[in-house]
Structure formats: structure tokens, C-alpha cells
Amino acid sequence: MPEETTSIDYVMEAASGPHFSGLRLDGLLSSPPSSSTSSPAHRFFSPDSSPASSLPNQPFVIGVSGGTASGKTTVCDMIIQQLHDHRVVLVNQDSFYRGLTPEELKRVHEYNFDHPDAFDTEQMLECMGKLISGQSVQVPIYDFKKHQRSSESFRQVNASDVIILEGILVFHDQEVRDLMNMKIFVDADADVRLARRIRRDTVERGRDISSVLEQYAKFVKPAFDDFVLPSKKYADVIIPRGGDNHVAIDLIVQHIRTKLGQHDLCKIYPSVYVIQSTFQIRGMHTLIRDRDISKHDFVFYSDRLIRLVVEHGLGHLPFTEKQVVTPTGSVYTGVDFCKKLCGVSIVRSGESMENALRACCKGIKIGKILIHRDGDNGKQLIYEKLPKDISERHVLLLDPVLATGNSANQAIELLIQKGVPESHIIFLNLISAPEGIHCVCKRFPSLKIVTSEIDVALNEEFRVIPGLGEFGDRYFGTDD
Ligand SMILES: Nc1ncnc2c1ncn2[C@@H]1O[C@H](COP(=O)(O)OP(=O)(O)O)[C@@H](O)[C@H]1O
Ligand SMILES: Nc1ccn([C@@H]2O[C@H](COP(=O)(O)O)[C@@H](O)[C@H]2O)c(=O)n1
Ligand SMILES: [Mg+2]
Q1: 3-state SS assignment for residue 464
Q2: Where are the bilayer-spanning segments (predicted)?
């Protein structure tokens, strides 16, 4: 929390003294970043872990739930088929059914296979954890005719780009849900499901019609109402008509493909956007990261990159529809820019982004925040000069490098104190360190981060690696 806030006049004076862009954080990192949300990979990709020990390729985990015979397995098969050019594995919750004891077997008609306790969820979590961390696992093979697992054989499941976990109750347990990057619920009418189930269980699972109907009335339907249906609310996508819904499956596959092409952190945090890398962008990064580049070229290429990030960030603002008449007399239906907008730069390096913002948004108001270390006791002062009506505006927060995330978090905290809704803040930067992304996104999950590259890590001195050194000094020419 800031010790004090004051006006911009003070800022300008203070700005000529020591400044911090997240690199000098004496005393601040002793307390770990707050962890308020639990996201799929937190257990496996800790912000404290070094890049070598964290995962190079975080798999995309999809949960597929729905009532019995709704078409879950069919939908999964279709997704897997369409993702043929990726490594995809399917894990069935059914594989983790507990085997019945001889006593239970004798009275199998009284056994409730639709209750959460029928599954060994601990074992499933362990298997999923290993798969997500890149290890192969041996998944049990379950026999629906014998109600037992095979005692001698297992199915080897290898680490993959996409892991699909499918089953009637995969959304029931929060720990299981937290593993998932995307949750799909397959919907089908109860009578359709019952008809399919009768056919499947009599043909494939060695049952007779009367036992299927009896089990359905006694256990399957009540458990659907008690456990499966209430978990539908956790779904990100609901597919009506299951495998017949080709449009939904195409959209899902498209989404998965997009996610697979993204940085792992974008899979974990949907609010992080890395602008699409092109050779132009890589070329500009190559130039500004080169320690031997001239100051003039550093500024020139940084400005070009900043402009791209700013334009991309503006694309995340809300818009309203607007029609205009063109010189041909035709009507063009377009959109109107968001008017309630302002920029806020984190002094000093954030000021390097102000020109690009002004060039894109004529007359935009730009406020400033300075986070200033007060002596050597770890205390910080925050100076600010912000538009009075900032709480009514969307805010583009500017800082070219996101390192530890501590200064960013303090600036964001201040904006929120001023009444800006978290979801109205878009944090723009050129380079983000994974540690900074974890730190900001965990604390402010609905804030958006738009960046042009995510670097490898921070070093012991909290400098972004490979990074580009002290951006403000290089941009403003104070590094000699
Ligand atoms: N859209 C569909 N039309 C007709 N039959 C279907 C359809 N989807 C699935 N089935 C059949 O219904 C049964 C149950 O489907 P399945 O995908 O195994 O459901 P779940 O895995 O949800 O229990 C299977 O025999 C399958 O072949
Ligand atoms: N020995 C068993 C184990 C499970 N079931 C039923 O399977 C259903 C889940 O599989 P779906 O492919 O239909 O999702 C579940 O409703 C159980 O009743 C069984 O009959 N016998
Ligand atoms: Mg199935």
C-alpha cells in the first residue's frame, strides 16, 4: 500500500532523483506475490520456480462434462480428429472408477456409479498433475461388464499439447476444475440420452434393458439432478446436440488452435495479450535489445513498437455501433471509438509511451504516477497527477517493461482506489517478464495486459532477461 500520495508538482521534482521501473525493489520482494486466484497451472508453474524448472510447454487442458450418453466421448473424438496435427490425449474419468469389492459385486444393482464417491478422484488428480507437468502416466483400464479395473494392464498416456479430461463429474470437484483451461458441457435432452444409453449399454456394456432402466431411475437420473446439472454453471461453452453440432466443434477447435499458438502464460491468463509476432516486430526487438544500437535508433524503433502496442491496446476498448454516409451516398456501418479514455504513465519510462498514445488518440488526457523509494528502509512514496474524473474513464496504463510487477501493482492499486474498475484498466508494455505477469494477473485477474514480447525470466537483480536494460535511461539518454 502506498505510504502517501501527493501532486504532480512534487512528481516532477522527484522524477529527477532516483526512479524505479521495477528493478530496484529493496525489501519488497521478501513477501511473495499475493495468490488470490487459483488457475490451472499454479501448482505446476509457480512464479517462484526458475524457468528451467518450470514447464517449457504448458499443455492446454480441456474438461468435457455432461450427462450420461450426452455425446461427451463422441465430441472428444471429433475434437481429437480435427486436431490431428497436434499431440492430443484423452483421459476418461471412467478409468478412475473404484473397483467393486466382492461384497459390492454381489449387490451391484444397489451400487451408485453416478455418485462422486464412485471415483478415485485423488488418483485422477495425481495422474493429471503428472501429465500436465510433462510426464507419461499409466491410466487404469476399466471394464464396464465386470465393474473392475484390469489388474495387470494399464493404458500408457504420454505428455501432450492438449489434454482432454472427459466424464460425467469432471466439473464436480474444484481441484479438478482448477486444472482446466477450458470447460465444455455437452447438452442433450434426457429422453435422447436415455434412448442412447439403453442402446449402448445393451450392445457394448453387456446389460439388459430392464437393468438399464432400473439403474437409470434409481441412480443415474437423481445423480444427474444432484451433481451433474449443478456443475453445468462452471462450463465456458455449452454444446447442444453434441456431436451433431459441427459449428460448435469447429469453433472450439479454432479456439484451441489459437491457444496452442500462444505463449503459455496466455493459456493460463486469458487477460494477457501478446501482439502477433511478425519478422518486422522481431526485427525491431532485435534492434532495441542490441546494446550497441545508437540512441537515435533505440528511440526510433522503440517508438514504432510502442505505437503497435498502443494500437493493439486500443482495440480492447468497448465501442458503439455508428453509421456514416459515404461520398457515394451509401451507408457504412462501423463503430465509434470509446470517448471516456485516458492514459496514465508510470514515471519515468512510461512517459516514453505518451507520444504514441497522443498520436493515436487526439487530445487524450494523460496522468502520471511516480513510485519513489523513500530512503533505504523499503518505504515507498507514490506521487500522482490523475484526471479528476478518472473513475469514469478506461485507463491505458503505460510502462514499457513489466519486470517484477511490484510497481505496476502499486500503480494499479492506486487507480482502483481512485475508483477505476479493474476491468477498465489496460496495461501496455513492450516486454513482460513471466514473474511480472504472474504477479499482476493473480492480483488483478480482470485487468488486461497487452505486450509485444514475453521474456524468459528475471535474474537475481530483478532485471528482465534477455531484456533490454534500463529502458528509461536508454530512451531519454541518461545512461552514459
Ligand atoms: N449425435 C448423435 N447421434 C446419434 N447417436 C449418438 C450421437 N452422439 C452419440 N451417439 C451415440 O450415443 C451413445 C453415447 O454417446 P457417447 O459419446 O458415448 O456419450 P457419453 O460419452 O456422453 O456417455 C454412443 O453409442 C454413441 O454412438
Ligand atoms: N460399472 C459401471 C460404471 C459406470 N456405469 C455408468 O456409466 C456412466 C458414465 O459413463 P458415460 O460414458 O455414460 O458418461 C454412469 O452414468 C454410470 O451409471 C455403469 O453403468 N457401470
Ligand atoms: Mg463416454
Answers
A1: strand
A2: none
Q: What are 1-42's pLDDT values in tens digits? A: 333 444 333 333 333 222 222 222 222 222 222 233 333 333
Q: Would the pLDDT of 274 be above 70?
A: yes
Please tell me the distance from the alpha carbon of residue 399 to that of residue 73, in angstroms, as a whole number. Answer: 47
Which residue has its alpha carbon closest to ligand 2 atom 17?
A: 113
Q: In whole angstroms, what is the distance from residue 91 CA to residue 82 CA?
A: 17
Residues 387, 340 contacting (CB under 8 angstroms): no
- Residue position matching grid coordinates 510433462: 134
Atom 20 of ligand 1, nearest CA residue: 69
The 10 Å Cβ neighbour count of residue 15 is 18
Nearest CA to ligand 2 atom 10: 68
Predicted local distance difference test score (pLDDT) of residue 480: 67
Could you tell me whether strands 394-398 and 60-66 are parallel, antiparallel, or unpaired per DSSP bridges?
Answer: unpaired
Instruction: Verify whether ligand 2 is closer than 6 Å to residue 94 (CB atom).
Output: yes
Is the distance from the beta carbon of residue 310 to the nearest atom of ligand 2 less than 6 Å?
Answer: no
Check if the beta carbon of residue 428 is closer than 8 Å to that of residue 457. Answer: no
User: Which H or E element spans position 402?
Assistant: strand 401-402
Ligand 3 centroid to 167 CA: how many Å?
A: 7
On the question of pLDDT at 454 being above 90, the answer is yes
Q: Is the ipTM of this complex over 0.90?
A: yes
Which pLDDT score, from 0 to 100, does residue 264 have?
Answer: 82
Whether ligand 2 lies within 6 angstroms of the CB of 113 is answered as: yes
- Please say if the pLDDT value at position 409 is more than 80: yes
Q: Which residues contact 393 (CB under 8 A, 6 or more apart)?
A: 340, 341, 342, 365, 387, 420, 424
Atom nearest to 70 CA in ligand 1: 22
Backbone angles phi, psi at 214, to 5 degrees: -65, -45
| Residue 375 pLDDT class (50, 70, 90 cuts) | low
pLDDT tops 90 at residue 51 = no
Q: Which ligand is nearest to the CA of 70?
A: 1
